[in-house]
Design goal:
Elements: H1 20-33, E1 42-43, H2 46-53, H3 57-69, E2 73-76, E3 80-83, E4 88-91, H4 98-104, E5 109-120, H5 123-129, E6 136-146, E7 149-159, H6 176-183, E8 188-196, H7 200-206, E9 214-223, E10 226-236, E11 240-243
Parallel strand pairs: 4-11
Antiparallel strand pairs: 1-3, 2-3, 5-6, 6-7, 7-10, 8-9, 9-10
Length: 246
Amino acid sequence: MPQEDTGLVLPATDRHDAPLYERMKSQIRVRIDSGDWPVNHRIPSENELVDMLGVSRMTANRALRELASEGVIVRVQGRGSYVAPKKRSANMMGVRNIADEIAERGGVHSADLVLMQAEVCNHDLADALETSVGEAAYHSVIVHKEDDLPIQLEDRFVNALVASDYLQQDFRETTPNAYLSRVAPISKAEQFVEAVQPQPWECKLLSIARSEPCLLVRRRTWSSSILVTSVRLLYPGSRYRLESSY
């Protein structure tokens, strides 16, 4: 969208001896907190900040980078920086369908299908799926989006004996969670959460910088006594949080 006059200034005495990047951050926060720049408003680019404020590119980059790490703005690779919405949440308790979560927040879910293929289990994959080496498994990689913003990268392996028609599903219309819940209802689940640095290919799919910290959920689910799926769910840390209550 066109960028209107920002009105950004750098007061000489914003704070005693405050560095330029801190003063830039403060002024951007003022525009956001005042409501002048609402959620999803495009923030001036590094080049625009350099031109309008007469600062170095390094200073502008640091200000935007730190605002992104603090969750104030969202930087979308190839598109620019935007005022961040309130961080989205996923409940750690239970196995929710991400499309349902997004709908409950009033958002629109969409998905990009990156990979759908059959594979033969090696030792590591056989262990993960509690099956034998040489057995068939299905592998899917999907980017889930909320209002066209990538919020989850799903990298899933599925026991082919349990979900024989997995590859025939259109996961742009439904989700693997919804399909698997129907053909193999969950009786048991285990999951582990950790903070990670994403791989370059993951950054590209999620439209995030390589320095963006992410939350990784590793999950396995069973139906009766049969292990159905092993999945990695990667969330950009600036766009998502995991929560639970007891």
